[in-house]
Design brief:
322 residues; Alpha-Beta Plaits; 2 domains; six-stranded antiparallel beta sheet; four-stranded antiparallel beta sheet; 10 helices; 42% helix
Length: 322
């Protein structure tokens, strides 16, 4: 096993890392959505946002892994931050740096690794966005572009630019974050020839909550709904608050019939989620659903417009029935 070298700017690098004030902080959706997306896009078993301290690598976010850190001397990411671009190991058993590494010999039995360095504002490489698998894999130029794109978003989050892609109130993706990540997922659907569905949500009688109980209670209702989305769709979809009381969910590997069934289940899940909170109101929603056909791909903006129109008709019909 080859221990990673210490960068020439190690003191400066550690100072920049500690200045971010992010080491050993709790999990956050703004990073978790990136590791979820990386795992899905590349169809790997593990994806991680890893930060390299003096003696340890610590995982700010990990999907598919239970560990929260390893020692730096056995880390693949310790080698990755020595490079300026993506480091790829297609088969660790054939690589003299890693063939006898404990992470290769034992759990998680790493064979494939690809990691893109994450830079602090002054350019110091403080960690990586990396993907791992227990099977050897190839990694082409398009894969490298996608990993760099995700890494650039992780860098932005590291330096507290989360407001650019995260909703300040609910801490889930905002419109900009959804459009960026959603386009990447739809591109992958075309490559993999799989269907997707977009659901556009609008909360029913939300104005009445604000008018009756005040805007603070209205904000709490929005946070409740966002938390219900996190609970219901964390592993299966991309979700966001577009603004006001409008939310959206992008289902991957689902046709419209499957997505409709999932939405029906979510209605019950929302009721069950809200019941122990003992709010003075119930949360209900109108929704518009459209299907994405990989053989006739449409831009994400067109899907949003179409689903918004269907949602409006759904809401109008519900008002007439009430």
């Amino acid at each position: 096993m080859k221990t990673p070298k210490i960068p020439a700017n190690e003191t400066q690098r550690l100072n920049e890392l500690h200045a971010l004030k992010i080491l050993n902080t709790p999990a956050e959706e703004r990073f978790d959505r990136l590791t979820r997306l990386a795992k899905r896009l590349f169809n790997v078993s593990v994806s991680v946002v890893s930060l390299l301290d003096a003696e340890h690598q610590w995982f700010k976010s990990g999907d598919g892994i239970n560990a929260t850190e390893t020692t730096r001397d056995i880390s693949f990411c310790g080698h990755a931050i020595l490079q300026d671009d993506v480091m790829v190991v297609e088969n660790a058993c054939d690589d003299p740096r890693f063939y006898d590494n404990p992470l290769v010999i034992d759990e998680p039995h790493i064979r494939f690794y690809a990691g893109c360095p994450l830079r602090a504002p002054n350019g110091a490489k403080v960690g990586t966005l990396c993907i791992l698998d227990s099977q050897p894999r190839t990694f082409d130029a398009e894969d490298a572009i996608a990993l760099r794109d995700l890494a650039s978003m992780a860098e932005a989050e590291l330096v507290n630019f989360q407001a650019a892609t995260s909703d300040e109130l609910t801490q889930i993706s905002n419109r900009r974050g959804f459009m960026t990540l959603g386009q990447m997922l739809l591109k992958e659907c075309v490559l993999r020839h799989c269907f997707a569905c977009l659901a556009f949500f609008d909360l029913d009688q939300f104005k009445q909550i604000n008018d009756t109980y005040g805007h603070r209670e209205g904000d709490r209702a929005l946070m409740d709904f966002a938390d219900a989305l996190k609970t219901g769709f964390r592993q299966s979809a991309l979700f966001a608050r577009l603004g006001g009381d409008e939310f959206v969910v992008l289902f991957i590997d689902m046709n419209q019939q499957q997505a409709n069934a999932r939405l029906d289940a979510f209605r019950d899940e929302l009721e069950n989620y809200m019941q122990p909170l003992d709010r003075r109101y119930r949360l209900k929603f109108s929704v518009g659903m459209v299907e994405f056909d990989p053989t006739q791909p449409q831009p994400l903006a067109s899907l949003l417009n179409h689903s918004d129109g269907i949602m409006y008709q759904h809401k109008k019909a519900r008002r007439l029935q009430s």
